Amino acid sequence: MGHDGARDRKDQQLDRDRVVDDDQALTTQQGVRVDHTDDSLAAGERGPTLMEDFHVREKITHFDHERIPERVVHARGAGAYGVFQPYDDWLAEYTTARFLTDPAETTPVFLRFSTVAGSRGSSDTVRDVRGFAVKFYTGEGNYDLVGNNFPVFFIQDGAKFPDFVHAVKPEPKNEIPQAASAHDTLWDFVSLQPETLHAIMWLMSDRALPRSYRMMQGFGVHTFRLVDANGRGTFVKFHWKPALGTHSLVWDEVQKVAGADPDFNRRDLWDAIESGNFPEWELGVQLVPEEDEFAFDFDLLDATKLIPEEQVPVRPVGKMTLTRNPDNFFAETEQVAFHTANVVPGIDFTNDPLLQARNFSYLDTQLIRLGGSNFSQIPVNRPVAEVHNDQRDGYGQHRIHTSATSYNKNSISANAPMPGCPGAFTHYTEKVEGTKIRKRSESFKDFYSQPTLFWNSMTEVEAEHIVAAFRFELGKVNDRDIRARVVDQLRYVDLDLAARVAAGIGVPAPTEAGRPNHGRTSPALSQLSDPVTGVATRKVAVLAADGVDGAGVTRLVEDLRARGAIPEVVGLTDGTVRSDDGGTVDVDKALPTVASVLYDAVAVPCGADSAAALTRDGRALHFVTEAFKHGKAIAGFGAGLDVLRAARIGAGYAEGADPVEDKGVVTTTAHGGDLPSGFFDAFADAIGKHRAWARKTDDVAA
Ligand code: HDE
């Protein structure tokens, strides 16, 4: 179902392929009903099995062939369907692409998020780039915007992609470490290839640790080209901005979530859509007229550079909403095949050498991954636009072409299917001239100005996280020369950064900058300088044991729900807990099955017996302490404050009913029906800020 109840064209098209097994008889692949599937056909009860058992042979043979190669990069992902709709038609001045310019047009989409380095079964929460690949099923054919959650990439020329990927993937000798960049080969590569530094700064930043796929920006990365009805081109960069804002986990939390819930980001996306909290992004564009191609101090064709938003503003185009989970992970999320060369009229390429290589690679990789040239017929990949051509046969051909001809030109079929019909894609006319040469353009050679811009734009908290990330990653590198070479490169980004990193990894402190810091900033690069706040879909644990303040819990849970948050009562065991008013409170989750790191905030209600039981339970104390360590909003009321004190949560506690908020810790001595509304407001406010970054927690043992 679409979010407005209407089923979009793609959803309807998929009905053709959906299989519903309800109330059906078990059959073979040939449709023959099977009487018994638990035992093989054998010569006697204890005898050898018989070749003649076509059912079991077919069953096992199919099973033997269930696996296909995982994606060579971006193997682990999660996908969903949705819709895109432009706000108005202002972009029509620049492009003929209908789906971007006709506000009456709703275009179905499929979006696949992914991590890059890890295998298909690796954890979601690792330090990595996230893929952000959107397939628009437009009326003019499929358009794929295959982007990432960073606006820049690690290399400039696709020729380096296999080198880079081999470096970041696990070490060849033992396939260790899984889904992690903290090892020698990656940092060896970085130290020798300074073009990586800008994306490396992003990778060391909080951007690499998204709280949710729903709280992540997306970027097309390359400079693409919009083309208007007269064939005039305009350079364009694509941006996706999440309605919930851009928010990250902290590193300690990331590592623990990887164990507590390896599917953390997947589950979050799935649950949000199932519960009707449809994730939303705004598509925006930065436009650069062709005359201004050389107006920047970097090359627009260089994918390791971004256009600062302060220089070229991001103009809103439309909204994408994810509304439907797939029916089958393999059929849809695994078999979806993106390709940067899937463009529609009005959108074209530039000579970015990374993009050009991608335009080769994505088609090629699907041929091996999906087993042949007919993968575009797989339901998730099929356009809603009509497909007619003379391409024939091949493995897995599903279409029955009835035409008498399969060539063009022909007279027998009146030259159908016909090229050159209205609405046909025509390549942008560009004059190209040059000497055949294998050489990196001189205009690509400033590797340091933008990493410096990124560093300068961070708040102090973000900068601290970057330093800690470098220390962690390089601290895992065995070869000390590699550590030193990376620090040497960081001198060219910023001397202070290099010195702070060096101090943590046993490398002599550098004393001289590689080059002076230009001092420029771009506030839009910081996640914390102007964050979007709000409690919507935030998960809040309410710790409870027998004797809990029933009225207080009910009011808190109802208040959080009314604000769009997701409260869960976490008990020492599952079932119910007795409340102080003689009733019961339902437990949503038992403490042993969850962890503090799976929640955005925690509340400890009143109830003397409940508080005493929680204080005696090390897991409950750890739950609260860890939330405090990770900067999360914490609320305590009445006797619940005893638990916070026992957890040694350093905060200015309320002395009376008037709520006190101290760096995300919200307290009141009131309880039950006396809880003041200001307490609920202050807690919601603290949750909405995502984390209390000003809280100092270095001495917290968690
Ligand atoms: Fe990809 N990339 N890539 N990439 N990429 C793939 O295609 C490749 C690059 C991105 O959810 C592969 O179907 C080359 C930039 C995403 O299915 C492969 C180069 C960006 C996804 C491939 C790049 C991306 C892929 C692996 C350098 C951000 C996952 C399986 C020239 C703008 C799509 C597949 C999905 C997947 C090649 C660089 C994003 C091998 C050669 C830059 C989001 O074709």
UniProtKB/TrEMBL annotation:
Species annotation: Glycomyces algeriensis
GO biological process: hydrogen peroxide catabolic process; response to oxidative stress
Enzyme class: oxidoreductase
Family note: Belongs to the catalase family. HPII subfamily.
InterPro entries, A to Z: Catalase, Catalase_AS, Catalase_clade2, Catalase_clade2_helical, Catalase_core, Catalase_haem_BS, Catalase_immune_responsive, Catalase_large_C
Upper lineage: Bacteria, Bacillati, Actinomycetota, Actinomycetes, Glycomycetales
Pfam families, sorted: Catalase, Catalase-rel, Catalase_C
Entry protein name: Catalase
Region (Disordered): 1-46, 507-528
Active-site residues annotated for this sequence: H74, N148
Residues reported in the UniProt entry to bind heme: R71, R112, F161, R358, Y362, R369
EC number: 1.11.1.6
